[in-house]
Amino acid sequence: MHMSYYQLGATVSLVIQIVVLFLLFGSIWLKGKKRYRQHGIMMFTAVVLHTIVILAWMVPSFSTLFSHTSSINLADMITLTIMIHTFTGIAAVILGFWLVASWRLQVDVKTCFAKKKAMRVTLALWLITLVLGIILYLKFIQLF
Q: For residue 5, what are the CA distances in angstroms to 9, 10, 11, 103, 128?
């Protein structure tokens, strides 16, 4: 089977997001081992990798998808899924940037403990976004 450019890009994007998922859970494991600096570095790596995929693949795909339509039908389940995926993803990456930027590779972790709820919300938003992204991947990969 010949893979189109879109299928290849979407597949690479999905694989990288799965790598990010492993980084996130690996960093949670490191936190449990009280290796907080390594936890932070791994989270920083996940945010950077995720951002690269957003800028290189997701933004152009989103723009292309909606530039070919004259109106957005929010009653359509795929469109609604795309919009929820987009908004939860934007919220997750903004929170991720804020958490990483506020940490600034410090050794002292007291400020991190104060952000534990924000970290949980960020992880939940990212997981929702990932699940919706997988659903969209499975739907769109058939079309191209």
A: 6, 8, 10, 38, 26
CA distance 42 to 26: 8
Q: Is 76 helix (H, G, I), strand (E, B) or coil?
A: coil
- In the numeric block, which tokens belong to residue 14? 């999905």
Sequence spans of domains, the chain = 5-67+75-141
Least confident residue range of 31-35, 60-64, 104-108: 104-108
- The dihedral over CA atoms of 101, 117, 127, 129, expressed in degrees to the nearest 10, equals -70
pLDDT for 29 beyond 60: yes
Residue 2 to residue 4: CA distance in whole angstroms: 6
- The answer to whether the CB of 132 falls within 8 A of the CB of 88 is yes
